[in-house]
Specification:
Layout: H1 2-16, H2 22-42, H3 44-54, H4 62-78, H5 82-94, H6 100-117, H7 120-136, H8 140-156, H9 160-174, H10 181-196, H11 200-216, H12 220-236, H13 240-256, H14 260-276, H15 280-296, H16 300-316, H17 320-336, H18 340-356, H19 360-377
Helix pairs in contact: 1-2, 2-3, 2-4, 3-4, 4-5, 4-6, 5-6, 6-7, 6-8, 7-8, 8-9, 8-10, 10-11, 11-12, 12-13, 12-14, 13-14, 14-15, 14-16, 15-16, 16-17, 16-18, 17-18, 18-19
InterPro entries: TPR-like_helical_dom_sf
Protein name: Tetratricopeptide repeat-containing protein
Organism: Colwellia chukchiensis
Length: 378
Amino acid sequence: MVVCVQKFFFGIVFIILSLQSPCAFALYSTKIEQNLTEQIKLNPNQAFYKVEALLTDPELTAKEKAILMVLQTEVAYYIDQPEYILHYAELAMATGELNERWHTRALISQARGYFQRGQFNLYFSSADMALTKATRAKLAAYKVSAIIERAFASTLLSDLEHANQDLTLAQKYLALLPKNFDKAIILERFSAVNSHLNNAKIAILHQKQAIDIYQNINSAHFLSIGYYNLGRIYQQLEQWQKASELMLASYHKALEDNNALNQAFSLSRLSEFQYKLAQPKLAKKYLYDAIVAADVSPSARVKIHVRKNMANVLCDNKAYQECKNLLLETVALAKTNTMQRDQIQLMEILAEAYYHLAMYEEAYKTLQSSNQLNSNHH
């Protein structure tokens, strides 16, 4: 089945690439979007590499290339690649070839890229620009996406009044959207904002609605993400057994999908929950397995995440020398990938490790550098 879809995808693309009229371009963008959406549901990683290959075609017009780059920003979001999101969003918008619809989509993707990077002021500004464009062009579905992203950014910037105003507005639009894949993604984000605001009941309700849509389209990849996010809400409620069951379901779907990224995130959270359930041996096993999966994944973010958890475990068990060595490696990884928020958190843990090793000067310098980076970050 997947092979047939692949052949159809490439067939449609290369036939339509030869057509250059405005009508042909409209047909091209619609068809490629439809086929890519189907591929994303099945395998976002595969879709990503297909678009990378298509972008090298010298016969592409500037408009076609710009559209492909916007589509690639959306695929990159699903596979946790913020550097590709930001790179392609900037390139696509710089072409001047995007209409209001595609420009709005590029801005929404750009906002999500800054979210993944932890650059919350830029996250807000991109979401705000997306909302302005979507409102002006009367793009209802993109308007609600932009509202939710702006609400999330406001939350992360501690502007709770404006966050709640945006969420109230978004709630009105959500009921009007058709129950399809795009709505599921919007519901995921709406749930995440409410979870961050401790609105657990609302977060659970909408996360379950997203999961129902993923079940209807039979997507192992997105079901893994859905169960993961639902597990995180129960974690917030300190319902460790329920959170653990959902995270295990997320891991099993990631195994079914052969997705190392989702496996690593799910295993890392499972490890945290097992410590809460007084199962330290199982917790350590899950964490070591998470690191193995993370290193197979192309995502720097998950590599940093699981190593941060491992460093906390080592420090908690007074293995400060091992903790220090791991943190030095992980701080360098965060710096290389411009993950400043993670870099700050890692440096704070590193300063504590230095302190316990009686390396007081290093502890002071590291904490001072962390504070300076935090000041610049905000």
